[in-house]
Specification:
Chain lengths: 305, 165, 797
């Protein structure tokens, strides 16, 4: 690895200034699991790395206002997946974090880094898309917040501008009766980069309130089948109308239609598209089964219908 | 750029000067001559370089791939390498089990697997077969086919439980 | 070694001393390996004088080198040596001298070494590489072995006709065929006429890599007298000494190769790959040691890969399942240099029937130069590749005829005394037993479990048999020295390498058995060619058999020396004496004396004089009966030393929607002659089966116009602990080998040979899809099950 300097900024402003002055040759550094590989391979030649992990809040998971949850960008995958507040309300994100690489790598890889690399196959992204997370960015102009779907711009490209860095991800409240399932397909059975991933999330249904609309709000996000992670809006809308087996198949097909996959060394576009339908259907079915099981455990009305 | 670092390895304090771009793996192998930690891919994929680390302020040791940690990051940390698993001449139950079950062949992946298995048993003393497999998914072994490794971890878990009784 | 008090030797109830053969003492180097104490080359200290070598590699697959300018690299501070092909123009190679340490005038694959540097730090060496300017004139490439074998293909080696080669290799000058091995036996017309079903199919096996967890690494240093020491992670310290000494025109005693523990090889560390470059650098380094260590990326395509194969198999079968004729064409993608690969082609040729009696057979096995990475030996040496087709073919034909594939195999598999395809008489073999036992253990005849109609997962079973002979020259030698120490322990010196297979432990057992001492009292040295006796190479599953013979002979020789001494000192008949549990015992007088009392200083005769002296036993072994084969027919009385045979059966689960395969169980059954250490034999079976499974389902070096697209663990996936089968069963069959130590023959490579076709057959059994190319990816199965959705251009089946 060619030499570079390792810098610890005193505060956000200094970090921002270092990154801005580096003009791309000074790289933000958190878990390093991607940067070190690319540096070793000679794909990037940083003059210096700026370790952002020590800045206030970067490694914190804390409740925000109005039931939001704030996850510091430098929190590791394991830290996120094992945190009681995440486990309590955002099981979908727990599943996604736990699907990344290996246990020891998840002790280094950070949730913020997963977003900042902007790989279309980033495993936490479909979960964050479903949860409609908001990215908080610090930069020369101060703090700004953008929806996660605007943070991903293209393969390896984010909305970060010169001198900016991701500080945290803000998760909107997720009701207790929300359910999510993350499915991914790799070449090996665990730990591979996703060939396809699909997150399915249902926010509020009639788990607690049998008079609520039968379908609730559905969200479906796809990974590794487009230049960025994608939401499958038409599939979501279809599920609002119909969650019968036939309706699930229609939604799964619409999710596949929303995919914009390419052929690469991991799989063909045709396979990826077909797998979106399979994983989406399985995800929807699993969410419904999960809800139905939860409803069966409710004391009164829920299980009867 | 060089950094003067203080940290402990296997309970012993060290003060060293390390370059910014050197990894913990390099420091252990080249500066401290702790060569039990192996370099198999330098990409965080094979697990041969796994060590246990307790970051300043953290409550427990966690496994990391030392090729993925920069030397200056470990200031103030406590590190355990394969050389630190045995106490005096007493092998860790995992080490004993690896010998008895035939879980080591060429031996190159063995230190990293032992480190990771130790971390597993420390956080989950009674793991299922599936949990052991999942915990070791980032440790590649080309010789054994893993089956004996799973047997060894289960055997060590039993030994540890009996020792607690 | 504690000085144990005199004790009665342990004899069994029958009065015979208990045998160590067939027992399973633990790996003798186990403690070193679980504590991190085992020293591999990269762990050895060389101090601050150590220079770091790196290799400048070709970015193009085929081209002429028009210019190399190393002046800027040489001028960089901290750069101590820069060498290019001009410095070492000689040819080298194991079976065919077609290769140089550095390309001289032409590069033939992406990654070929064109120059090397040695510098004070790796960082400086890397910068120096960037400063070396190389100008190429690209040439059209050969990226397909069938095309490469055709007259239309550009020549990769125009000088093929001038290369030296072993007498049993047949290059075809003026073509890209560096070896053409032929078998012509029987009458093909009659064979086809006798068949009720004739079936022909094409099978394809991609390049894969061995993936030892320890990448190639070596350190070379030249002393003031010009003598060079090479510390090398190698399966072949003696072959490296031989090939490098010849290539650099130095004496063999001027090159010393030291091999400590080796972190896996699987064939990739046989012969020579990077080591010549390290020695070349060291020869200009003014006494400083030079380390050359491959990155994982380099490991994937610049050391050795397993050759690719396109196989056409045509077989005739009667309606009751008897094979009447076979016609095979094997096009091996040998890569840019086939110095080693030519012999894989030969082995595939003389094994081209698979383990079956075939009266009429015609095999053409072509080693074809391409502009791909260098095909070298890999666990199985061509057998995994050809069996992938042969064993699917047998299944397919059996099923087409409505026959049970197991019964068809039992009907046709070679039995004692039958003629092989090259005219050799088959020695006693447990092949039928292996097939029966594997089938039984997988529950071949058991009714399939009821299928859950709602589930998309289906279960099924498959099976494949195999044979493999040690593929090597007719006369590869082994030798061993057993020295007794003052405390009565023994030190065994060998030239073969324990690359994880357990050779040191097996040799300790053989030495202990031959001497009559405890295994714990035997030390086995790692290899140093200055002190270790000669061994050809650690390949071909030959150590237990060949080196084992040498060790046993050396131990028995030492034992004889000891007993002669005692017989003379005690005035006894040597036949009344034995060594049991470290003590010489007289069955006549029941007197016992520990070895430590006599193995160095000898014994005092009754008259006060002394007899004996330091005990050093020696042994050697070399097969003396292998015959040449007719170059036109491949016929000859004894093509090989022996065949190890076996069978694997697997149970799989296939997800019909995704195509994903889960291997639930692998049963392995091999005829190992005699298991010296049954537990270690089982670990070889198990590890080989999972490696075979990994290559079956996952592995392929993706090459696009010769450029590797996945030289990393991110995209060259190998099986993990999660992918390993839920269950394995490892069955030892023992039909003794007449010239093996205690009847043993090798089994190191064989366990990964039949795994891929067994899985392919199981997939067919499960979902009715025949996958003819490796790896058997989920996508290929899905595409075959959902042809209307698949993109045929992207998913070759």
């Amino acid at each position: 690895m060619q030499p570079f300097d390792y810098l610890i900024p005193g505060d956000h402003a200094e970090a921002s200034a270092l990154l801005a002055a580096g003009n791309g040759r000074v790289r933000p550094f958190m878990g390093g699991t991607d940067l070190l590989i690319r540096t070793r391979g000679g794909f990037v030649r940083p003059q210096a790395v700026v370790d952002l992990k020590g800045l206030p809040g970067m490694k914190e998971i804390r409740p925000g206002d109005d039931g939001w949850l704030i996850i510091g960008a430098a929190c590791t995958m394991n830290q996120v997946a094992m945190h009681p507040l995440v486990q309590a309300r955002y099981d979908l994100l727990v599943q996604a974090c736990n699907s990344v690489a290996s246990y020891q790598l998840r002790n280094r890889a950070t949730i913020g880094g997963n977003c900042c690399n902007a790989s279309p196959a980033a495993d936490t992204a479909p979960a964050l898309y479903c949860l409609e997370a908001v990215a908080e960015i610090y930069g020369p102009q101060g703090i700004r917040r953008i929806p996660i779907a605007q943070f991903f711009v293209g393969p390896g490209k984010t909305a970060l501008r010169s001198g900016e860095f991701l500080t945290s991800l803000h998760l909107p409240p997720s009701p207790q009766d929300a359910r999510g399932v993350f499915n991914k397909l790799g070449r090996t059975k665990m730990g591979d980069i996703s060939v396809v991933s699909v997150a399915v999330y249902r926010r509020s249904g009639r788990l607690a309130d049998p008079t609520a609309p039968a379908t609730g709000e559905w969200r479906i996000a796809l990974g590794a089948v487009g230049p960025t992670p994608l939401r499958a809006a038409e599939a979501e809308a279809a599920l609002m109308q119909d969650t019968s087996p036939a309706g699930i198949r229609v939604a799964a097909a619409l999710a596949a239609a929303a995919a914009r996959p390419i052929d690469d060394i991991r799989a063909s576009a045709a396979y990826r598209r077909a797998m979106v339908a399979v994983l989406a259907r399985r995800g929807i079915e699993a969410v419904l089964a999960d809800l139905s099981a939860a409803r069966a455990q409710l004391p009164a009305a829920g299980g009867a219908s | 750029m060089n950094h003067t670092l203080h940290f402990t390895v296997n309970g012993e304090p060290y003060e060293i000067v390390a370059a910014s771009h050197h990894t913990l793996l390099q420091v252990l192998r080249e500066q401290l001559a702790l060569t039990g930690t192996k370099n198999g891919c330098e990409a965080g994929e094979c697990g041969a370089c796994a060590v246990l680390i307790r970051w300043p302020g953290a409550d427990r040791f966690e496994p990391v791939n030392s090729c993925m940690v920069l030397a200056p990051e470990v200031a103030g940390a406590e590190i355990v390498t394969i050389e630190g698993l045995a106490h005096d001449d007493q092998l860790d139950p995992l080490q004993e089990a690896f010998i008895v079950t035939g879980a080591t062949q060429c031996g190159f992946c063995t230190p990293g697997i032992l480190i990771n298995a130790r971390a597993l048993l420390d956080r989950n003393p009674d793991p299922s077969d599936a949990e052991i497999r999942a915990a070791l998914v980032g440790n590649l072994c080309r010789c054994t086919g893993y089956i004996r490794i799973l047997d060894a971890v289960k055997m060590a878990a039993r030994t540890r439980k009996e020792a607690l009784r | 070694m504690s000085q144990a008090p005199h004790h009665k030797p342990q004899l069994s109830a029958s009065g015979r001393k208990p045998s160590l053969i067939g027992t399973s003492p633990l790996r003798i180097e186990g403690r070193a390996k679980v504590t991190g104490a085992a020293t591999y080359v990269d762990d050895m200290p060389f101090g601050p004088a150590l220079l770091h070598g790196m290799i400048k590699r070709s970015p193009i697959a085929h081209g002429l080198i028009k210019r190399i300018d190393v002046s800027k690299a040489r001028a960089l501070p901290g750069v101590r040596v820069v060498v290019t092909g001009q410095d070492f123009p000689g040819y080298t190679g194991l079976y065919l001298k077609d290769r140089r340490i550095f390309a001289l005038d032409r590069v033939r694959y992406v990654g070929e070494a064109v120059a090397a540097v040695a510098a004070d730090t790796p960082e400086i060496a890397q910068r120096a590489l960037d400063l070396i300017e190389v100008e190429y004139e690209p040439l059209p490439g050969v990226f397909d072995p069938e095309f490469g074998a055709s007259p239309a293909a550009p020549l990769v080696h125009p000088d093929l006709g001038n290369y030296e080669c072993a007498p049993f290799i047949f290059p075809q000058p003026g073509t890209n065929i560096s070896n053409w091995f032929k078998v012509r036996k029987g009458n093909m017309a009659q064979g086809w006429a006798a068949a009720d079903l004739i079936y022909e199919h094409r099978y394809q096996v991609p390049h894969i890599q061995h993936v030892p967890l320890e990448p190639h690494v070596c350190v070379a240093q030249q002393d003031v007298n010009g003598k060079i020491t090479l510390w090398s992670s190698s399966q072949s310290p003696f072959a490296q000494r031989n090939l490098i000494a010849k290539a650099l025109n130095i004496g063999h005693s001027q090159l010393r190769v030291i091999t400590p523990y080796v972190g896996g090889g699987f064939g990739s560390k046989a012969g020579v790959s990077i080591e010549g470059a390290a020695v070349a650098l060291a020869m200009h380094a003014r006494g400083r040691p030079v380390k050359l260590r491959m990155t994982r990326e380099e490991e994937f395509y610049t050391t050795f890969v397993r050759q690719g194969l396109v196989a056409y198999i045509k077989m005739g079968m009667t309606k009751d399942g008897r094979i009447t004729a076979v016609e095979n064409r094997f096009y091996w993608d040998g890569g840019a240099y086939t110095e080693y690969g030519v012999n894989i082609t030969r082995a595939a040729g003389y094994s081209g029937s698979g383990p079956y009696f075939v009266p009429n057979i015609h095999v053409d096995s072509y080693c074809v130069y391409t502009n791909h990475p260098i095909g070298g030996p890999m666990r199985g040496f061509g057998m995994a590749e050809i069996h992938f087709g042969i064993e699917q073919h047998i299944d397919q034909m059996a099923l087409q005829l409505g026959l049970d594939p197991v019964q068809v195999r039992l009907l046709n598999c070679l039995k004692d005394g039958q003629e092989t395809l090259t005219g050799m008489i088959m020695h006693p073999t447990g092949l039928s037993q292996c097939i029966r036992k594997a089938a039984e253990a997988i529950g071949w005849n058991a009714a399939p479990p009821p299928q859950d109609e709602k589930s998309h997962k289906r279960r099924g079973k498959g099976l494949a048999a195999m044979w493999k002979a040690p593929a090597m020259p007719p006369n590869p030698g082994s030798s061993a020295v057993v020295r007794l120490n003052e405390d009565g322990t023994a030190t065994v010196s060998i030239g073969g390498v324990d690359i994880g297979q357990g050779a040191m432990t097996a040799m300790a057992q053989l030495a202990a058995e031959g001497l009559g001492i405890r295994v714990e009292d035997v030390r086995v040295n790692t290899v140093d060619t200055d002190y270790s006796p000669y061994e050809w190479q650690t390949v071909a599953s030959r150590l237990t058999w060949s080196m084992g013979n040498a060790v046993l002979q050396a131990a028995e020789n030492a034992r004889h020396q000891i007993l002669q001494t005692v017989a003379e000192a005690w005035g006894e008949d040597i036949n009344d004496l034995d060594i049991v549990d470290g003590q010489v015992v007289s069955y006549r007088t029941e007197e016992a004396r520990p070895l430590r009392d006599l193995v160095i200083y000898g014994l005092q005769r009754p008259d006060g004089t002394w007899v004996g002296g330091p005990v050093v036993g020696q042994g050697r072994f070399m097969p003396e009966y292998v015959t040449p084969l007719d170059p036109e027919t491949g016929q000859g009385p004894r093509a090989v030393v022996h065949f190890t045979t076996g069978c694997q059966a697997v149970e799989v689960e296939v997800d019909e929607e995704t195509g994903e395969v889960t291997v639930l169980k692998i049963v392995s059954a091999y005829d190992v002659g005699r298991a010296i250490n049954p537990e270690m034999v089982r670990t070889q079976m198990e590890g080989g089966a999972v490696q075979g499974m990994s290559t079956a389902l996952l592995e392929q070096i993706i090459l696009k116009d010769g450029v590797p697209a996945n030289p990393n663990f991110t995209d060259y996936r190998i099986a993990t602990a999660v992918d390993a089968p839920l269950e394995t069963e490892n069955i030892i069959v023992e039909v003794p080998q007449d010239d093996g130590p205690f009847g043993a023959r090798g089994v190191g490579e064989h366990p990964m040979v039949p795994t891929a076709p067994a899985i392919a057959n199981a997939v067919y059994n499960t979902v009715g899809v025949r996958i003819s190319s490796l790896p058997i990816t989920g996508e290929k199965i899905w595409a075959a099950l959902h042809p209307q959705e698949a993109d045929p251009a992207m998913t070759p089946v």
